## 1
Amino acid sequence: METQVNPLKMTDKLPLFVNKFWRDVWDNKRDGRIVAWCSGAGPFELLKAMDIVVVWPESYGGLCGVEGIGTEQCQRAENVGFSPDLCSVIRSFIGVVDGIPPVDPATLPHGGLPKPDLLVCKPFCPGIYRTWERWSRQFNIPLLVMERPRWHDRLSKEEIAHFTREGIEELKDMADVLGKFTGRSLNYDRLSEILALEREAAKLWWDIIGMCRNVPAPMSVFDAFTHFFPFVYLRATQEAVTYYRELKAEVADRVANKIGALAGEEKYRLYWDNLPVYFKIKEHRQKFASFGAIPVVGNCLYYIGFFPDEDSGNPLETMFELLFYHPSNRGLKGRIDFITKQIEGYSLDGLVMQRTRTCLAVNMGQDDIAEALVGKTGLPAVVVEGDLCDERLYSSAEFNKKIDGFMEVLGQEGQNRRSVSGKSMA
Ligand code: SF4
């Protein structure tokens, strides 16, 4: 029932920004500019600074999930021989690119993905690396790989300094290779401008999600999952800054006027772990709202707009720090500490741990994180099974049953459950 939630006005503006991004991509492709496919966590700033058009296939896979065509694309990828255990975001964009039977691009969102001239990847998960490697052979185009050491919990200052020096050298080497490929050299001022725009948009984004500490929350996690798309597509652009300034103004206005994202009383405020189930965002928003419940914070929201606090003044060092210190690149203790810090002040009543069946990278350590969060916060937790794009791996009946039971627990424990010791419903 749509009346249970108050949609943000910016939601109507979102397609304008996203459509313009894709129009520009295709116009640039037609004009003969170099197009690179970059993995989500890849060093895209370098590409932009060298006037290369960047497309993120993982985001496109996620979009297929949102549009409800993810399962179909996954099946196409499986027909080529890919395992159904492979991440459904990856299978979605493989299905789009070279699945069997081939798909008519005219039926795809934004006409599909323009063929790349170059591939750039940071192998965050093995599936991404193998896919980029395969496409490099298939399209007969260069593949550049940015290695990134893990920031594990016991690294010494000397080791971090060593990794930083190595990372900067690696980025310089990459810039040299790109220079030979494009015939242009890296403009460091342009790179600094790009990073400054990215930093500004990230700051705005963290301000926006931070405002959800207010009661009532002006925005839910599900709203935020919708509005982080500009951060993904329009990364490091003036458009992203403009978008988030407008969104921040609307969210601040809601806070000032005590307008919540829920239309009715806000009874339970929840933490959401992991990405959304892309094809069920609307349904999940309504499911929680029907109990007067609202997920108000999630780890991935803080992952999206992560940017180091200090500006080193060296753009390549900043780029390395972005990759190295990113919360998803930390050891288990580092991730637990990061999440524990970010969820402070949200007046939470419970934790919802969404287990994405085919994303091993984000799921890794999730049980330990859940246990630690329950221990540290004293909040009850529930684990729900989901997936990003493959509807065959999701059961509404199972999800609803878990949430119904969890809401019953929250109801029984009363409003002041933060003071009692936690328990977990697996
Ligand atoms: S496995 Fe996880 S991290 Fe890797 S592409 Fe899929 S969703 Fe992203």
## 2
Amino acid sequence: MQTKQKRHVYKREIIMSKILDYANEIVPCQRNWDESYQIPEEEIKYITDVATIVPTKQQKSVFSLMVITNRQIINEIFEICYEKTDKFMTFKKNSQVRANLLLVWTSGPHPYSGQSLGLAVGISSSAAALAGVELGYKTGFCKCFVAPRARDLLEKYVGKLPGKEVPLMLGIGKPDENFDTRDVTIDGVLKAKKETNGTKNIPIHRLT
Ligand SMILES: Cc1cc2nc3c(=O)[nH]c(=O)nc-3n(C[C@H](O)[C@H](O)[C@H](O)COP(=O)(O)O)c2cc1C
């Protein structure tokens, strides 16, 4: 009995440290990739299963998921990943989207928008990123893109999308080992170095 209990505690500790490690891993935004690497199809399925199985409010299909590995399409998307006003010279800098696997969340078919859509996409993308690091990959989120152009571009390949919004993108893949996480590269060539945004301090109120 004693041994069984000990084993249980030990196992629980391993699980707890794993999820914490994964949470830490998805914080830095990976900005360079071994662009020639291909993620095996069963791993892509694993990540997309996780991203689409996590709950949405009333289990409505509030988003669609674009699962992109085609390098030409990724290149096209990369071109529109910049701040519309581009005060911070973000054009061709959001290289997190140049990953081996690019996930793009779009709205619909269920017509949620704004905050309700954002909540669902947040839960889904976070789960997808955790699944990605569990498989040994790096991740990079991207909100900084011209959404209507992203939608037009995607519609060119998949036909009319059910909704108008494109809330988020997430790159997952194998980093380029020649660079640091925050080095912005295009196909192995260094283009910029990004500073970290540092750490945050989320208040936790423990009520007992
Ligand atoms: C929802 C979400 C959207 C993000 N969008 C962008 C983005 O558009 N551009 C960007 O450079 N980083 C983006 N990031 C990455 C974060 O800025 C990054 O994870 C955070 O700053 C920590 O990494 P750092 O230490 O490299 O700064 C996003 C992260 C999240 C969670």
